[in-house]
Amino acid sequence: xxxxxxxxxxxxxxxxxxxxxxxxxxxxxxxxxxxxxxxxxxxxxxxxxxxxxxxxxxxxxxxxxxxxxxxxxxxxxxxxxxxxxxxxxxxxxxxxxxxxxxxxxxxxxxxxxxxxxxxxxxxxxxxxxxxxxxxxxxxxxxxxxxxxxxxxxxxxxxxxxxxxxxxxxxxxxxxxxxxxxxxxxxxxxx
Length: 190
Prior knowledge:
The protein is an alpha+beta fold. The protein has one domain (15-189): Alpha-D-Glucose-1,6-Bisphosphate, Chain A, domain 4 (2-Layer Sandwich). It is 36% helix and 34% strand. The protein has an eight-stranded antiparallel beta sheet with strand order 1-2-8-7-6-5-4-3. A hairpin with a 4-residue loop joins β7 and β8 (147-154). The longest helix has 21 residues, at 169-189. It is globular and about 45 Å long. It starts with a helix and ends with a helix.
C-alpha cells in the first residue's frame, strides 16, 4: 500500500513541505527530464515565464555560474488584491552551480517594500538584514524522465524561518511550482 501511495504523490505532482532546524524544505516532482528542468530554473528567459505565484509577472537577469549574480523581480498585476500591489525584487549570488544536479544561491530581499519588510519583521519577532537574507540549495534528481526538485531554504534562525512561513511562503512556492510544471510540460512536448 505504501508504494501505491508514493506513486500517487508523484503522479499528482504536489509539493511536499518539511520544516527543519532553520530550514524549509520543499519538494516537487515534475514530468520533464532533469536537463530541461535545470535549464528552465537557470535561464533568465525561462525564469521570467514561471518564477512567481499566480497573478505576478516576472523579469529576470541571470549569470548562471559560480560567483555569478541574478536578479528577479515579481511584478503584481491588477488581478491581485490591492494589498499585494507593487514589485518584489530578489537578488543573489550563485555559490555553487553544478549542471544539471545542484544550485546553491544567496537570496536577498532587502529591496522589497518597507510595508512588506514590516510585516515580515512582525512575524519573525526580529528586525534587520538577517531576516532578509537566506541561502537556497536546489537539487534536481533524475527519476527516469521525471525530475524531483528539492528546495532547501536556510534562514539565520527558526524565528525568521517561521516568519517566512507565516507570510505565505509555502503557498507562494506551491503556485510557483505549478507554473514551473506547466512550462516544463509544454517545453517537453515541443
